Amino acid sequence: MTVTITSTEAMAQAIVDMHRATLALPVPQNAMPPAPASDDPVFVAALQAAHTLGFIDADALCIARAWSTRTRRTGQFDAVHWPDEPADFDIAPFPRDNAFAPCPQALGLYAVMPDAAWTIRMARAGVPTVQLRFKSGDAQAIRAEVKAAVAGVHDTGTRLFINDHWREAIDAGAYGVHLGQEDLEAMAPEHLDAIRAAGLRLGLSTHGYAEMLIADRHSPSYIAMGAVFPTTLKQMATVPQGTGRLRAYAALLRDYPRVAIGGVDLGNLPEVLKADVGSVGVVRALMTADPLSDAVAEWTTALERKIA
């Protein structure tokens, strides 16, 4: 279904009307911003609409460019279908020469833990993917924690990602490394090359379109998307995205393993899995579970039922 509209303002309003229910943030909507100077009416309309729906400036710009590219490619303006074709976002096809080692499309239950002891506990409880997110300024303590975590999950079948500490992850023989956007920005190209050359997988965090496109340029092993729901465990740079945006993000990143993270629990898990993600990141729900084995079994069953 396509909509033929000639007015820039009418095109912008049509986009907002079609997608307000699923993609707008749960906050009072902004008034339609003034049109920027451009000779591309679709770009202008999509940019205005994205701002009205509450997307931050960097993400609104990505959306507007994609909408304009799709319109030129198809020869018609379509307000109904949110853009999700990778080529319209300048996402290159696979395979790629710079791709990191692959990991399963469905990483399943993904526990993010603060130290080696918790990491090992999750692995022994049967969690298939675990991330060690150990925060310390003590280099010796970091090396010890990473080494202990890698040794502790050995022979459990658990995939262990190390957050941030990539040198220690390589030295200890971890399964992979996970980086946030700030960590990625601070990484020199030769450091990423070292992770790739060592055969470690790379996971990257994202919080919207602009960060997803930055992540995609590095061809990581998986991409995490969040925060889906409010969370008190980490100070987030963006507000919770909601499941509507998660579905849009997952559709665009369909060629990657996708991890949804941030405030996910068993109550909202069914709605999260409708977004076609193969993994969910969990912290509090597992750390407070008693007994842990029952919680892991419940989460795993719910995930496997949907993924299958």
Automatic annotation (TrEMBL):
Entry keyword set: Thiamine biosynthesis, Transferase
Class in the EC hierarchy, top level: transferase
Organism classification: Bacteria, Pseudomonadati, Pseudomonadota, Betaproteobacteria, Burkholderiales
Protein name as catalogued: Thiamine-phosphate pyrophosphorylase
One function term, GO molecular function aspect: thiamine-phosphate diphosphorylase activity
Originating species: Hydrogenophaga laconesensis
Domain Thiamine phosphate synthase/TenI: 117-286
InterPro entries in alphabetical order: Aldolase_TIM, ThiamineP_synth_sf, ThiamineP_synth_TenI
Pathway: Cofactor biosynthesis; thiamine diphosphate biosynthesis
Gene3D superfamilies per UniProt: Aldolase class I
Enzyme Commission number(s) from the entry: 2.5.1.3
